[in-house]
Every structure is written in structure tokens, then in C-alpha cells.
Design brief:
The chain is of the alpha/beta class. It folds into two domains: 231 residues, TIM Barrel; 90 residues, Immunoglobulin-like. The protein is 32% helix and 26% strand. It contains nine helices and 20 strands. Helix 2 runs parallel beside helix 4 and helix 7 runs parallel beside helix 8.
Length: 350
């Protein structure tokens, strides 16, 4: 009898251990980190100190996460590279001078690869930005270079002001001009793009695909996995209050939600017209779901026909919104997905 009770106790404890272990198993994911300026107190909302950057690098190393280049991420999304656990990609937008003078030496000393997306028109033109010679020096050292547009215009404004046709025309012209300059200055045709301000539309994604771009990045928070759209990849900005050790730990606790269908999406949402937000995710078990709309914050949800929906209709009057979904899966992990949606005159929404 005693032996039987011990066996039962061992079985119960083992089951509890397995459940606890499973609940903390990390999903396969890639976290793409985003920076802009470094150690520039004039612009605190877009600046990260070099001490904070070093802390981020050492935290990633201490967790034994894989550190990838963009070409590794490209291979992973193409199905040519495997991942177990977490990989991290370091990216910098714009091409500010402090990228070269302050961040580059830190990455060099730590032996960590990183990538820079250039606001092309500003290079060698404005004093706060790098020169082409600096960019060439970093490229020779293995730094990957991507496009952050030629003009750094918020192209989604054109949808509201002139319509889809003009947006396509302006965005294509801008991107071709950036590629022409990069070919002339660097002898290089990048395949990587980051959207100015993280704002995008379906038209912009289509143009990038036609031009041969293989990766494009937003500024929406959250990790990603192999099922994400390679031309709409999220990144985690680490700046100001979001550069603290506490926030970095929050970043790496997030898991990627795979969204199968969503409304609204990057095609836009009509101004002033009440809508219900609807999201279908891949997971069959969804606990404590919530929907986020930047104009309204986190809103209550209901489940209808296997879709997570906002309980109430929402009216949107801001120029743009970021939408998001979060929920707990069957293993007790919190999953997130965010995306950008422009607000448009009702006649332009398809």
C-alpha cells in the first residue's frame, strides 16, 4: 500500500514538474531590436546611451541567444535556416553620426553584428548624419546596409491627400532614387528596407516586392517567427524609458502571435465610420484575449466564429492607429502581434 502511494505521489509530482516546465518553454522566435541615436541628450525620445546599448548586448549574450545578421533572418524566413529558442538582430535607423562615432565602436568591441538603414538624402549632406566614407568603412567591416527611404517622407499621408495612385508613384520614385544613390556611392543594391516612421500600406509592400526587396521592417513591437510576412516584420525600439533593463526583460518575455486574418489591415480604415476589430489567430486555445487600438487603448473582446473581436464598435478619427492583439496560449505564454493602419476617407478604402 505504501509503495503504491509513493508511486502515485511521484507520478503527481512529475506531472506538476512537466506542466511547470512546459509553461516556461520559449517558443521559437526572433527579436529585432531598433535604435536611432546614441548618447544625444538633445533628442531623448530617440536616443539610447552607449552604456544602455552595452547592457543590452551583454544581456543578450548572458541569455545565450543567437545573434543574427539580416542575411540569417532572410534565410530563416525562406526556410533555409533552423532556429531553436531565441535569435536577436540589432538594427539602427536613419544613419545618424552617433551610429558611427558611438555605437559602432561598442558593436566592434563586443564582436556583435548590426545593420543600418539609411535615410539616403541625409548622408554626407546634414551635419548630424554620417558621411558616405563612414558608411563604406562600416560596410567593409561587415555592417549590413539597408534602405530607410531617400526622403524620409511619411508616404501614408499621400493616401489621405491624393490617393493610392499618387502614393504608388511617389513611393516608387523615392525608392528608385535611394537605390540609384546607393549603387553609385556603395556599388551595392540592398534587399532590406525599413519604413519611415514604421508606417506602411499594401501598395508599398507590393512595390518593394517588385523591386526585389526580401525583408522590410516596421516599428511595431513584438517578436516574430517563420510564419511572419517578410515585408512586415516587427521591431522592438529600445530608447528612453524603453531602454531600461526592466523593459528589455519584458521585450524578451513576449512571444509571437501568428495572425491568419485581421480587420482592419494595412489597406486602411475609413475615417469616422464605426467598425468592429476582428482577428483570427493560428492558436486554437486562446485565453484572456485583448485587442489594442492606439486611439482607444486596450478594449474588451468577445469571440465570434473563431475570431477575436472588439466587443463594441469603434470610431477612428486619428490620422493613423496601431492595432494589436494579445492572449495567453495553452502553455501559459503571452503572445502579441501589432500592426499599423492608416485612417482614410471612406471612398479610398477597399
Amino acid at each position: 500500500m505504501l509503495e503504491e502511494k509513493l508511486k502515485n505521489l511521484i507520478f503527481i509530482l512529475s506531472s506538476v514538474f512537466i506542466l511547470v516546465f512546459v509553461s516556461y518553454v520559449q517558443a521559437e522566435k526572433v527579436v529585432v531590436l531598433l535604435y536611432h541615436r546614441f548618447g544625444d541628450p538633445r533628442y531623448p525620445t530617440t536616443s539610447t546611451t552607449t552604456e544602455e546599448l552595452l547592457e543590452h548586448i551583454r544581456y543578450v549574450k548572458s541569455q545565450r541567444y543567437e545573434i543574427w545578421k539580416l542575411k540569417d533572418l532572410e534565410a530563416y524566413l525562406r526556410g533555409d535556416k533552423k532556429l531553436e529558442g531565441t535569435a536577436v538582430v540589432f538594427t539602427v535607423d536613419d544613419g545618424y553620426l552617433t551610429t558611427f562615432t558611438r555605437a559602432y565602436p561598442v558593436f566592434q568591441r563586443e564582436g556583435v553584428p548590426f545593420s543600418v538603414f539609411l535615410y539616403v538624402e541625409a548622408i554626407s549632406r546634414y551635419p548630424d548624419y554620417m558621411t558616405w566614407q563612414m558608411v563604406r568603412e562600416m560596410m567593409e567591416d561587415g555592417v549590413e546596409i539597408g534602405v530607410h527611404s531617400y526622403s524620409h517622407e511619411d508616404f501614408t499621408h499621400l493616401l489621405q491627400e491624393k490617393g493610392r495612385h499618387d502614393l504608388r508613384k511617389v513611393f516608387l520614385t523615392d525608392t528608385l532614387k535611394a537605390l540609384e544613390v546607393l549603387e553609385r556611392e556603395l556599388g551595392y543594391h540592398p534587399g532590406y528596407y525599413s519604413y519611415p516612421y514604421g508606417h506602411l500600406t499594401e501598395e508599398m509592400k507590393d512595390i518593394l516586392k517588385d523591386l526585389g526587396f526580401t525583408l522590410a521592417f516596421t516599428q511595431d513591437i513584438g517578436p516574430l517567427n517563420a510564419e511572419y510576412d517578410p515585408l512586415e516584420l516587427p521591431r522592438e525600439p529600445l530608447l528612453q524609458d524603453w531602454a531600461t533593463p526592466e523593459h528589455v526583460k519584458i521585450v524578451f518575455r513576449r512571444e509571437p502571435a501568428v495572425v491568419i486574418w485581421r480587420y482592419p489591415d494595412t489597406r486602411g480604415v475609413p475615417y469616422g465610420k464605426p467598425i468592429k476589430v476582428k482577428v483570427r489567430v493560428k492558436d486554437s486555445t486562446v485565453k484572456h484575449p485583448a485587442i489594442y487600438v492606439s486611439e482607444h487603448g486596450w478594449v474588451e473582446t468577445i469571440v465570434e466564429n473563431d475570431m477575436i473581436c472588439s466587443r463594441e464598435e469603434l470610431t477612428l478619427k486619428r490620422e493613423s492607429n496601431r492595432f494589436g492583439i494579445r492572449y495567453m496560449d495553452a502553455q501559459g505564454r503571452w503572445l502579441y502581434r501589432f500592426w499599423y493602419v492608416p485612417t482614410l476617407p471612406a471612398s479610398t478604402v477597399k
